[in-house]
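User: Can you help me understand a structure? I only have the sequence.
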Amino acid sequence: MLKEIPYDRYSAVEYALKWAYSRNPRFFDFEGIGGDCTNFVSQCLFAGCGIMNYSGFENGWYYINANDRSASWTGVQYLRRFLLTNEGVAVYGEEAPLAELKPGDVIQLKNSSGILYHSVIISYVKNPVTPQNIFICAHSNDARDRRLSSYNYTEAKGIHILGARYEE
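Assistant: Let's start by predicting it. Here is the structure, written out as tokens:
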């Protein structure tokens, strides 16, 4: 039976701020082989929920080591699919406009070809909530409290994290 637990936004953001300019040695740094942005966001999400989903490479969300991880742990579009469709254990969310996002939520950026290419996590927001007032942390061009508006993108897609589940 699945049991709901709250997503700890504070812990996710605290982790993001701590590791924004460095690397947690528990996780491989994918910077040199495609980028580390989604790996970093997954680590932050994990810090906020403490649960991984071992449902397999295609359907789960987990990291054991660099060679044993799910596609969603490190792939931008795979993380999006997992967060928006996960009905099992671990973290999950819903699409949301930027104005409704909070610290600990995820933003993914699209380029002019319509391809999602970058994942970031929100560290804080100011009112009114606009790209100028959303601050993020990221890897692959490491950033700590960087304004979302300073990025070059065609569209920013928000994912509001609703909570997490574990198997009881």
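Now, to help you interpret it: The mean pLDDT is 97. Residues 2-167 form one domain. Let me know which part you'd like to focus on.
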